[in-house]
UniProtKB/TrEMBL annotation:
Its EC number is 2.7.7.6. Residues 138-187 form the RNA polymerase sigma factor 70 region 4 type domain. Residues 30-95 form the RNA polymerase sigma-70 region domain. It comes from Sphaerisporangium aureirubrum. This is RNA polymerase subunit sigma-70. Interacts transiently with the RNA polymerase catalytic core formed by RpoA, RpoB, RpoC and RpoZ (2 alpha, 1 beta, 1 beta' and 1 omega subunit) to form the RNA polymerase holoenzyme that can initiate transcription. It is an enzyme of class 2 (transferase). Pfam families: Sigma70_r2, Sigma70_r4_2. It comes from the Bacteria. GO terms for molecular function: DNA-directed RNA polymerase activity. The keyword tRNA processing does not apply.
């Protein structure tokens, strides 16, 4: 994502809007970048609601700093710079946004939230919507980088910015950016040992037929309260997390199902399900709706995000969705 030219049509129009105090034109020019900026903030923060807030903060700061824009960089670059620093300021104030050491990556990130695919940028060619850079495992891994190192890694290896451009955005030297990137890559290799690390290569976007089939079977088993069917879909080294209550644990398929039953699921009052297939973070997911006795409607209960490997569910991350208007899903069925 390099600047095509120093003063393009958007930049000239933006400067003219600033000089004439044309708020409508300012909004028109900046709003078109909202989705990609929100993805950027989400990668920095791993929390959808915080990403929304920081995107809005970005536009507020851009308005307040509008006269500082001289067209020396693309408008998009200027907005990314503001968004990155807004996230860094946020992280500096929040001591609950730094993962604590754990043997199981991500188990301590109770603030993790899913990202609705419908809010991703619409251009499928944009590297920033690549599945490999929005999946939960990637988002979790990035959180293990110190904030400024995290920013360097995202700007350099995900967005493909040159070192000089990243250094300017973060007010660092090129040498500091290069050093931070090297350290970040080491951590990412530790956090994602089985994943590729060349984030700028062509990447996948769509779910496979295998993934769709497993999600359908998962939903069918859930709606029929078929515990054996559910168990058959899970790997025996399942990585399970229920957020925000419970961090990640590794368990067998049998232990997972037994634990759900012991917690009350599939028992009377928690056995009338309807499920909807969806996708979040470019991953297959199921929205689980529960109807309790005496209630005429099924109410959104949990979002189950699945990572499927060789036809089995290797990771299941559940997000409590009660009373949350997440992902554009209807609250009731």
């Amino acid at each position: 994502m390099t600047d095509a030219r120093l003063l393009g049509a958007d930049e000239a129009t933006f400067i003219a809007a600033v000089r004439s105090d044309d708020t409508a034109r300012f909004v028109l020019l900046t709003e078109r970048h909202r989705r990609e900026l929100q993805v950027h903030c989400y990668r920095m923060l791993a929390n959808y609601e915080d990403a929304q807030d920081m995107t809005q903060e970005t536009f507020l700061r851009a308005w307040n700093k509008r006269e500082s824009f001289k067209g020396h960089a693309a408008l998009r670059t200027w907005l990314y710079r503001i968004a990155t620093n807004a996230c860094l300021d946020f992280l500096e104030k929040r001591n609950d946004r730094t993962p604590t050491p754990s043997e199981l990556p991500g188990s301590e990130m109770l603030y993790l939230q899913p990202y609705p695919d419908r809010m991703l940028p619409e251009d499928p060619q944009e590297s920033l919507v690549a599945r490999e850079t929005i999946e939960l495992a990637f988002i979790v891994a990035v959180q293990h980088l110190p904030p400024r190192q995290r920013a360097v890694f995202i700007l350099r290896d995900v967005l493909g910015w040159p070192a000089s451009k990243a250094a300017d955005a973060l007010e660092l030297t090129v040498a500091s950016v290069t050093s931070a990137l090297q350290r970040a890559r080491v951590t990412m290799r530790e956090q994602l040992p089985d994943r590729r690390l060349d984030w700028r290569r062509p990447a996948t976007h769509e779910l496979s037929d295998d993934e769709r089939g497993v999600v359908k079977s998962y939903i069918d088993a859930h709606e029929r309260n078929d515990l054996d069917g559910l168990m058959s879909l899970l790997r025996d080294d399942l990585r399970f997390a229920m957020l925000p209550e419970l961090g990640a644990v590794i368990m067998t398929a049998e232990d997972a199902v037994d634990g759900w039953v012991a917690g009350g699921l599939f028992q009377r009052g928690h056995d009338d399900w309807r499920c909807v297939t969806t996708t979040v973070n470019r991953m297959p997911a199921a929205a689980l709706y529960l109807r309790t006795p005496g209630d005429p409607e099924y109410r959104l209960y949990t979002i189950a995000v699945l990572r499927i490997v060789d036809g089995k569910i290797a990771e299941l991350t559940g997000f409590d969705a009660t009373d949350k208007p997440w992902l554009g899903l209807p609250p009731t069925l």
